Amino acid sequence: MPSAERKPDHIVQLVWPGQRAQLATLGATGKSGGAGEIFSIEGHPQFVAKIYHATTAPAHLARYRQKIQWMIDHRPELPQVPAEYQDIVQLAWPEALILRRSRFVGFAMRKITFERTLELDYLLNRRQCAEQGFDADYGKLLTVCFNLASLISCLHEKRIAIVDLKPMNVKVHKAELYVSILDCDGFHLATEDFRADAPQVTPEYLAPEFHDRAVTDPQAQDSFALATIIFRLLNYGIHPFTGVAADQNKYPLELAGRIKQGLYPYGRVAHPSVRKVPASVHEAFPDSLRQLFDRAFASPGRLRPSVREWVEELAIYASKHSGQMAPCENGHLRFGGRPCPTCIRQALIEGAEVRRRSFLARVQAAPARTLKYVRQTLRQTHSSPFQAALAQAQLFTFRQLAPPAPISTRNAIALEILWIGGLLIGLWWTR
Amino acid sequence: MDRRPADRPLVDAMSPFTAAILGTFLGLLAWHWRPPQTASLGAWVLLIAFGALGAWAVWFGLLAHPEPTGFDFWKPTVLYWTLAAIMVIVPPLGGGYPAKIILGNYFALSNREWRWINRGFALLCALLGGVNLVAAAQSSYKDWEGFKFACLVFLLTIVLFRLNFVWLPILAEVSIYLYRRAAAAWRYLSGLF
User: Fold this and answer.
1) Superfamily for the A113-339 domain
2) pLDDT in tens, A297-340
3) Second-level CATH architecture of A1-111
4) Of the candidates B79, B94, B148, which has its C-beta nearest A394's C-beta?
5) Closest approach of chain B CAs to the CA of A359, in angstroms?
6) H-state helical runs in A158-281
7) Which of A52, A217, A274, B84 could be joined to A265 by an S-S link, Cβ 3.0–4.6 Å?
8) ipTM of the predicted structure?
9) Model-level pTM?
10) pLDDT digit string, tens, across residues A19-37
11) Do A405 and B36 touch (CB under 8 A)?
């Protein structure tokens, strides 16, 4: 680290499990979040430090210290990964307390290599995904969903819940498809000997029963957020509560409002007030998945599938040996016996693109076309194929229409004199 | 303050003679400048119907013959129902869409769209004719007068469309023509001096 960056504030004490203390120097990384800033730790390249902002109230810091200390002492068992992937960090779990002049300021956690990972957010958009060097297909996406569900399930077994579960807080390993969850210090802990709440929520992923009130069942909240993430991953980023108003009722502009009102348009039974967006491919999902989605989004909270149920269901599709996924005739992976969602999506996008271009071209040409039409009207030089079609469809034809002959402005004036005459007569009759 | 002198018309009402001269002149001009192509059946039917309605208007309006008693109440209905009947009967006979002639075919609309506009006009005219009779029979004379004036909005809308899309382009063409002529005349006159 350059000497210019060595400040007294950057020298801290790491307190590892077993109260083993060690002095270390922090280095700025430029990464900052809502609660704190991320630093590298000199001499510990596999760790990073999260230092809470200096503006954090002492009372909050004290609560954080208690929580972090408990987390350091109670690291949960995580899903097994093969021996060659042991370096994968599935949870940014606290590993050591960080003190500065004997005061708690943050914690150290294992470093997630950003070069090997990408934010789950990117998987919601196939173009962004490709730009990040990840070629998404349904096999990979289902594996990511399964790994995420497995990880959360392990946490739930330890009575730990994420609560603020959202794509931004999840990293995906591009090659291995394992996931890493960030911001562990915001988790909800409810064990027999310790309890800590999760203060943070994101309305777009918040279950309807917790809008405008505290999250009283964090695991039910995780189930809802997980179902939302899975739905978005499989449906090209479309949020399950994105739709089109189908009746005169007021349709909330915000997703949060739609979640609260249960306006889920992708159920097996159509919602009376909202229609699906045309680009959705949910109809290509198997019935078992759709049933889980319906229970997650269109049923009361107590019927919502647990994370464990998601793990069991996704395991069938994430496993290559189950034979539940098969290639379509274009080589995309699809659910067995169902239409290919990738092909459906491509057809929808190409159709929409053609319609969009055609519409734009028509809009751009409208002023010139209107002027041309007015001139043709004045000169009577229309050559409309519709007129010919109409003449063929008519019951009786008294007279064959004469071929259009150009008329001058004088002819147009003559017609307008007659028209104004008619108008005056009309006025007399309606007066 | 007595403002009655200021409320008087500046000129006397047009005499029947002047009106007849003006009408004849405009009629002859229209005939002289008539378009070369044959008019459609719809145009002929409208022309005949308005010719008859116009003759009635000239006879009972300009030449001051007393109208049949109580006919006042029927007048708007006769006009609206005549228009509605023309719009209903003419299209199946291959005469085109009268609404197109009334509105002006300045919109780039398909025949299907014109068909629906024509049907809409027919329905509106039929309704207005019916409502006029109901208003005349069941409301006060003042309310009936109010209804008739409200119906003029319908005519005014059509006039505005026509003004915007037909008369203004004609005016532009005429202005360009006159400008060119004036410029040529100016060049000719400057050459003389």
Assistant:
1) Transferase(Phosphotransferase) domain 1 (1.10.510.10)
2) 998 888 899 999 999 999 988 887 778 888 888 888 899 888 99
3) 2-Layer Sandwich (3.30)
4) B94
5) 15
6) 218-234, 255-261
7) A274
8) 0.86
9) 0.58
10) 888 888 999 888 887 788 9
11) yes
